[in-house]
Amino acid sequence: MADTQTADTKALLGGGSEGDRLAATHFMVGAALLVLGGGLQLLSLVSLRFAGLLPLSYGRIEPMANLTLMVGFVAISLIGGVYYVLPRLTGARLWRVDLPWLGLLGMAGLVIVGLIVIGVGLGDGSQPLGLPIWIDLPLVLVLSIPLIVTVATIRRREEERSFVTLWFVLGGVAWLPLLYIAHLVTELPDVSSVATAYGEVFFSAGFVTMFLVTVGSGLVYYTVVKELDIALASRQLALVGFWSLGFAAAWWGAAQLLFGPGPGWVAGVAAALGLAFPLGALANAANVSMTLEGSWAELGERPGVLSGVLGLYLTVGVAAVAALAGFRSVGSVTSETAFWEAVEYVALGGVGTLLVSSVSLAALPRLIGRQVETASQARRFHRLTIAGAVGVLITLGAAGIVSGYSWIGGSNSAAYVDAGEGWAAGVSGTYDTLVLVALIFGIILFLGQLSYTALVTGTVTRGKAIPQEVLVAKETSDE
Amino acid sequence: MSEKLTAAAAALGLPEALVERSAAARAAETGASADDILTEWAGGEAASASAPPAEAAVSETSNAEDAAEDDEETPSQAATPPTAVQEIVIDVPARPETAAPVPTGPYKPPVLVGARDNPMTILLGAIGLFIMIVLVGLVGPSISTDIAGARSSEIPYTESAQRGRDIYTTSGCAACHTQMVRPVIADVGLGAVTLTDTNQVLGTRRFGPDLSDLGSRMTADQIEAVIGGLGSHPSLILSSDMLTDLVAYLSESRTSGTEQS
Q1: Chain A closest CA to B76's CA: distance in Å?
Q2: Which of A69, A269, A379, B97 has its CA 20 to 30 A from that of A37?
Q3: B120 at interface of A, judged by CB pairs closer than 8 A
Q4: How far is A339 from chain B (nearest CA, A)?
Q5: What's the domain range around B179?
């Protein structure tokens, strides 16, 4: 019985190498957790608009959503993408394939345990994940596994020339555990409140720039070049994109604490270096666009490539908005408001979904020998995700700006009396309406995420059989 | 069929199961029969225009091999040391034309290859950059600035209030409330500006009111009522001891009257 089940599972995941089954499983687990994470993210918007409506407060739902999306969906899926490209770029077998299986089990298991722990109120309340230390520590260990496997695999490489994706992958898997460790240090009991606050925004911003966008962009490079069989436009531009994303990490996080109790020089540095985020995003988007010159017509038939292009463009939009708010004049209105919630919401739910789907929709047919199920469903996924993400970014961002201006108008100090009670009520009504509209766009984004999961599930279970790419170990003889 | 399969597998040096599946896929792709494909691979007469799997195999490198004239860009497939176990991608291409054994079209640039380099230098650079960012972006802003004569933002909380601060944190209150008053017009009326030595929970979002000076605005009973769900505030389920501690923390949060250092 057990043998039959194993055989069935292997048949479902394709008859390729163990490393390929590993990558395919990562994509499937990530897609399943996206439904949970996307749903929780939507509930966080519901609790923001209708406080007290749900049995759990926003303060608990938000870290639950962050945990599921950041670790459960983005990290697991992108790490699956890393395991997919590594043997193909290095010509070496994935090192110790049992270790990544353990990592996958650990990440998925810790996400589920973490959700329960936060839900029942045993989390530590820290942002963005809210996990107690006894979950944080094993999570750091399992997040270190991709780094170990990647370094060990690259050390055994047969291919001496590096495609640009290898830089992004290596940087991303190295930065992820380091970010988490730095965040953990700022949560220690004797660390000052100011350091804790900076640690929280540092991790949130760092995860998006140093892991999500870095690894995601690197995998898009691989997807575009591999799927369309065309050469990359510029290796130098990719290098600019990679290092810019690394530089950008801390600064749009620090911009969220503008005018706070940190030293004054942080604001200036944050504004200047925060520009590295849109610069890196733009470099990658431009590079891919130039690579696609003459091949744009093929995008409709390549859902993975289209996802990557849309994901990179959306990243440029999110990065531009985040960098803009790093300037003191804008930050005096947007800091501490829902504006930053919009940026993080779209970065995880929109950019994350598109960049992940870029590699998964291109890789799954090669890994399991099944065609992506129906092009129309892929189109639906793209339309819903883009419409929802852009809608949330605009409306929730606008809600933040409105509340920021209402504070400047004196709504915190009762000075609004001078402007009349009607003014305060009007501002509040506008804010509530914008959050409500954002909620509607959030539903659209969630439908897009559901479409992605349905697409992955449908491809694995019902996709039309096509030739499969199989990794085989070949004994070479003495010559 | 099995003899042809064995012969083809022996000729290609690949497992029979793999050759059989590749032949079936190739047959479906080209319209020829699997037997003919196997005969061709075993060294017999050609049955189709398709290439045998060994040539189609290196899908990651085949395009580079097509451009073998460009020595700079040729991958190291040929440079593989003997006796090494090598990963090869067996790829039965979806587009037969990409597997043509001899390139007949115009020069096609190689893909998925780059300069000869050591990726570990990228790793070292990435770690170095991270250390720099942590020092400048995390450690730097967190260093307390003690200026002589400056007002202190540290509040002398009682033991109960300190326990309440932990409850405030673990309950996720900081997800909606700040305890940080900034020197900006938007925060006028919230209380004294928060300085670096604060022992309150700063928070990063202000969906609800700022609570750094709540004790000056509300009584303990009023605070307890709000925590219990008064108005639009969600009701927190806490034991009576926890509620007492949390109320103590918020009641003692008074920054308006903090003493000079």
Answers
A1: 5
A2: A379
A3: yes
A4: 10
A5: 159-251
